[in-house]
Amino acid sequence: MKNGNHSAVNEFILLGFSNLLSLQLFLFSMFLLTYLVTLAGNLIIIFLTLMDAALQTPMYFFLRNLSFLEICYTSVNIPKLLANLLWNHRTISFLGCATQTYFSFFLGGSECFLLASMAYDRYVAICKPLHYPVLMNRKVCMGLAAGSWLSGVFMSFGLTSMVFTLPFCGSNKINHFFCDIPPLLKLACGDTSIIETAVFMVATVFVTIPFMLILMSYIRIISTIMRMPEGEGRRKAFSTCSSHLIVVTLFFGSACVTYLKPNSSYSIDTDKFLSLFYTFFTPMLNPIIYSLRNKEVKDAFWRTMRKTWFC
């Protein structure tokens, strides 16, 4: 079907890691293991925070939301990548590609503000402990969580609509393992500068602003912790906050380099590598970091195991 000098694109080909033919089975095994660990770890976090009475606090309410979001986020891209590696079936329909792009940006944008909400929760808990039950009541927690989820809906719809109404000509091969916007724009015909500017502005709002809010929260938190007397409370505060900071650094660091760097320095290999961090490794590390470094979660796990064993 022709439209001027351009042929309509009905499907795309995700090249992924096709240049590493000898490593396809190894990559499949590694990514499958990562996916299974991610699902298992985050499902355990969700189960524990729902069932254990000691974890019915705002912090674990946000952690439960984060774990559910990570399960959804990894499930958008990893199953398709695994199928591509196993069966070498690399095609994806035009609608399927648009859907993948929409949910990737929707869930990624939501995670930015959810991490900011978690930082605010820790700020109130450590810096304003006497006001914590009032400032972080159930209504406030529900509002922050709902706002985080909804923040990505409209942003992602706008970006996805702008990209997939572009005419695509020539090659339909996406040099990536999922339908990300930067490699898609390389295939578009005509001027894409407006969309590139929109992507940069959205990334600035959804990455920079939450990151700055988190940074300011933790400057206040660290200042408060340093004034605490030595003891269990200080160690617990450091442990909880350091866990959150590790997650934030990995997620925002890779996202900033991917979407805020100049186009002149764009490298598809670097983009693929960084994308692995926020699509694969950060979702896998979240439950590990929050459980291994959190005594309350570990205690809840063993309590649940003992109850299950006795039953």
Describe the structure.
The chain has 10 helices and 5 strands, in the order βββααβαααβααααα. With 311 residues, it is mainly alpha-helical. The protein has a 3-stranded mixed beta sheet. The radius of gyration is 21 Å and the shape is globular. The N terminus is likely disordered.
Mean pLDDT: 84
Strands, total number:
5
Q: Report how far apart the termini are.
A: 64 Å
Major β-sheet annotation: 3 strands, mixed
Q: Report the helical percentage.
A: over 70%
Contiguous uncertain segments of 5+ residues: 1-5
Major beta sheet, strand line-up? 4-3-5
Percent of sequence in beta strands: under 5%
What best-fitting shape do the alpha-carbon axes yield?
globular
Secondary-structure element pattern, one letter each: EEEHHEHHHEHHHHH
The whole-angstrom Rg is 21 Å
Q: Count the helices. How many?
A: 10
Secondary-structure-derived class: mainly alpha
Quick overview:
With 311 residues, the chain is mostly helical.
Which descriptors apply to this entry?
mainly alpha; 3-stranded mixed sheet; single chain; 311 residues; disordered N terminus; globular; 10 helices
What topology does this entry show?
Layout: E1 2-3, E2 6-7, E3 11-14, H1 24-51, H2 58-87, E4 91-93, H3 94-127, H4 132-135, H5 138-164, E5 173-174, H6 181-185, H7 193-226, H8 232-260, H9 268-292, H10 295-310
Parallel strand pairs: 3-5
Antiparallel strand pairs: 1-2, 3-4
Helix pairs in contact: 1-2, 1-9, 1-10, 2-3, 2-9, 3-5, 3-7, 3-8, 5-7, 7-8, 8-9
